[in-house]
User: What shape does this take?
Amino acid sequence: MVEFAPLFVPWERRLQTLATVQWVFSLLLPSSAQICTAIFVGLLFTRFWFISILYTFWWYLERDRPRRGGRRLDSIRHWHIWKYMRDYFPVLLVKTAELDPSRNYLAGFHPHGILATGALTNLCTESTGFSSLFPGIRPNLMTLNLFFRVPFFRDYIMSGVRLVSADKESGDHILSREGGGNLLGIVIGGVREAENTRPGSYKLVLRNRKGFVRLALRHGAALVPVFSFGENDAFDKVENLPGIWLRWCHNVLKEITKITLLRFIFRGIPQHNFVLLPSRGPITTVVGTPIEVQKTPNPSQEEVDGLHQRYLKELSRLFEAHKLKYNVPSDQHLEFC
Assistant: This one.
């Protein structure tokens, strides 16, 4: 049975919902790719064909931009629409230690959740006051290279929400900048961790993820553990057993886009069943104390393993220190896989 939303709700809540709708669908690659590609191709058959031609040249000249730090257009980061999206959940950013603007940082965001709401809201917009809490720090967030193959959309995520490509060259470029003040955010668990997302789950795909540690060692970038409480509670897991049509759709989508979305129940407009929209519920992103890292251009496996173990301990300590504040049962602990 379809569950309809209330007909009369405050206008403020309607704006929050609309802001979240545009955000969710802009991140759903199948829909965003189709729309942007259709516009790009469609213009070729109109009197505005020259726009697509000029954009093709622009795209060629800027082909390496996602690996070179993207572009910074702060006006989009300050759009009021992001504040409505923040208030939909709401999302809150909590600082537990200062970040020295003369240093560079690599921040590990956990958990991934479905849409990495905490990482995107806090690092890619100013809705939670990142620049006020951490003055002098310029945030960057890595995302799938696949997003940068879509015309027009690639420019939006680079210039507007400060996303960069998830590859070695991109990380090296940001963390090697002189003068400090650069923070590279990586949602380390990726697609595998997204598949584990379910309310009340604290399972992180992290035990064998050590590339970020090696990257931090090579550049001497301090490691910052970050945990978003409530991230996994925005979506409800549904059964997806082998042999059913949902499992087949999920596997096809994953093969094409490397993104997992079909295994979850979302809310909708004007009903609560069939449109991709997360449930309302607080998401609190807690930024931990930086772990000092000695610059080691060619780190050994032993050095990587040692720093990785220290990171796991600091992340667990951060989780244990704050979990009771954000309604996590005392008997719940982080599980690394």
Notes: The first strand starts at residue 91 and ends at 95. Residues 42 and 114 are 32 Å apart (CA to CA). Residues 301-322 form the longest helix (22 residues). Residues 262-266 have pLDDT under 50 and may be disordered.
